[in-house]
Amino acid sequence: MFNQLGVIGCGLMGGSFALALKRAGLVKQVVGYSKSPSTTELAKRMGVIDVAAESALLAISGSDLVLVAVPVAATEATFNTLRHGIKDGMLVMDVGSTKRDIVDTARRVLREKVGHFVPAHPIAGSEQSGVAHADATLYANRQVILTPLTQTQPELLQKATDVWTAIGAQVQAALNDAVEAADPTPEARLIAYLTASFAPPIADADLLSTWLAFWSLTRTDAKIAHLHDEIYAENRITLERLLDAHAPGSDHRLTAIALTALVDGLWLELSLGNAPFTPDEATALAARWLAALLPRI
Question: Which CATH superfamily, name and number, covers 1-172?
Answer without folding.
Answer: NAD(P)-binding Rossmann-like Domain (3.40.50.720)
